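Would you be willing to look carefully at the protein I have copied below?

:::
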Amino acid sequence: MANIERKGTFKVEYLQKIEREIQECWEREKVFEEDAPLTPKKSEDEKYFCNFPYPYMNGRLHLGHTFSLSKCEFAVRYQRLKGKRASVIFPFGFHCTGMPIKACADKLKREMELYGFPPKFPEDEDVKIVNDEDDVIPKDKSKGKKSKAVAKTASAKYQWQIMHSLGLEDNEIKKFANAEYWLEYFPPLAVKDLTRLGIHTDWRRTFITTDANPFYDSFIRWQYIRLKERNKIEFGKRYTIYSVRDGQPCMDHDRSSGEGVGPQEYVLVKMRILQPYPPKLRSVSPKPIFLVAATLRPETMYGQTNCWVGPDIKYIAFETKNNEVFICTRRAARNMAYQGLTKIDGQVDEIAELLGQAKERGVVTSVPSDSPDDYAALVDLKKKQPFREKYGITDEMVLPYEPIPILNIPEFGDLAAVTVYEKLKIQSQNDKEKLLEAKQMVYLKGFYDGIMLVGEHKGKKIQDIKKAIQKTLVDRNEATIYYEPEKTVMSRSGDECVVALCDQWFINYGEEKWKKQAMNALENINTYHEEVKRNFVSSLNWLHEYACSRTYGLGTKLPWDESWLIESLSDSTIYMAYYTVAHLLQGNSFKGDKPNVLGIQADQLTPEVWDYVFFKDAKYPQNCRIKKESLDPNET
C-alpha cells in the first residue's frame, strides 16, 4: 500500500489545544473535588463511588492501565451526565507495598557492587524457557482456572538495563538503589500522565501506601488490630511458595514468573532398598535407605509393579531427620529441606551422588494397570530384549510381572491402561501424542468414577477415599507428605522458589461464620451478571488461610509483632474506605507530610479514633487528642 503523507498537523494541534484549555479549566474550577454532603442522601441512587485498583509504583503507567482505566472513566462521566455531579467520587491512590520495589533497589545495589558504576555487564546468556508438560491429574480445586494466574516467562535482564529502557541516565538510576526514591519519583509522574489523559479524579484524595505515609499506615494498623481482636488472624506453620534468597514467602507480586502458582501436595512413597547396599551407600548401614517417589495418586500404590529411574542424570542420597536415607534429585531434596524433613532446616546432608533420574522428581512409581505411560514402558521392556540389556535389566525383573487390577473405571474396566492402550493402537512409549490422549481419557475418569477393587476401601469411589489412603500410608511410615510448586516459580530476586513450611501470620478466610457473612453480603451486591456472582461464590469457597505477613519489602509493620510486615495484597482490601477521609488528612501530598485542613497529626489517629470515624455505633473516645467537631462535621 502506498504511503500517505500527512498534509499538515493543524487539525491535531487544534484539538490538542482545546483539550489543554478544557483541562486547565477543570483544574482552575476544581470541578472534580467533591465533599460529602452534610445531610444524608434520600436515596442510594443519588451517589456514586468509583474505584480503580491502585497501580504499583515500580515504573511508569502504560497502555494496559489506560485500557482498564477507560471503563472507570466512562462510568464516572456517565454518572455525572445523569445529574450526580455533587455525589460522584473518583479517587486515585498509588500502591508501594511489598517486595518488588525493594527487590529492584537491592538488585541495583548488587549490580553496582559486582560490576561497578556505571555497571559493565558480561555478555547476555541464553535464557532457557521451561514448558511444563500437560497435567491432567485433578488437583486442589482452589488452584483451578484463574483468569490472571498464567505463569509469565520473560528473557532475563539486568535491573540497570531495565531502568535504562525507561529513559533514565546512569546518575539518576543510581538513586533508585534506595527503595524510598521510587516512592518519590514515580507517583508524581503517574499523576502528570493521568491528568494529561484527562481523568475525572479528585486528586486531594491521592496517597501512597507503606509506613512512608503515616496516615495510611495508621489506618492499616487499626484494621489489623481489630482483625486480631476478632480472632480472624492466627499464627502457625503453613506450606508456602518460598524464596530462599529473600528468606521469606514469595507471593504473586514478588515473582518474575509463576504468577498464580501455589504449593501442590504429593504423597512421597518410600520404597526400601534391600541389603547389601551398593558400595557408595554401605557406609550408612544399618540405616534404612529408600527410593522416594512423589505421587498424586496414592490409591494406585496397590498396583505398583516397579519404579522408574533414568540412567543419565545425577541424583543424591541424603539423611533425613528420622535417621533414614532418601534417594531423589537434588532439586527435590532442596524442597524437602524446607519442609521439616531434614535434620537442619534448609540444609541437605548429602551422603553420595549417584547416576539415574527420571522425569521431574528423580524416582517415579509404576502402575501399569492404570497408567498408560507405565504400561507402554512395561510392554516395550517385555518385547525388546536388547532394550532390557541396554539398561542392565534382567528377565526376572520384568517378564513375570503383569498389570494388577486395583480399580474399576466404567467404560474402561479393571485394567484401564491396557484397554486404552489397545483401543488407541499405541505401538510404544514413543507414541507421545497417543499416550497423552490415553492419559487424559483414563486419569480424570478414574478419579471421579473409579471404584476400588482391593484393600480396606474396596467398593468405594476413589475421590471419597484418597485422603484416607494417604493417611494410612503416612501412619504406617510407608510415605510422607511432600510439596512442590505446581510449576516453576522465579522470584524477582532471581532464584527458583521452593515450598517451605513457614511460620506465618495468616488471615483465616475459611472460618465458617465469617464466610457466611461474606456470602450474605454477596447476596446484596448487584454483580450485573450471573457469571460474575458465580465467580465470587467460587472464590469464597476455595479461599481459606492466606498468609498476610512477610519479613522483606516495604509496608506497614504488624502492630503486635513489628518484625513482620503486612504483605502487599493484605493492606489493599479496604483502602476504598480510606479514600473517603484521605482529602482531610493527606494535605494534598502523597505521604501526608504537609499540614491538612483539620490540623490532625497521624499519631493522634488511635484505633479508637478510627472506630469513631467508621463504626456507626462507636462513641467519641475518651482522652481523644482531636476535637470532636473535626471528627464529626455534622456538629460544626
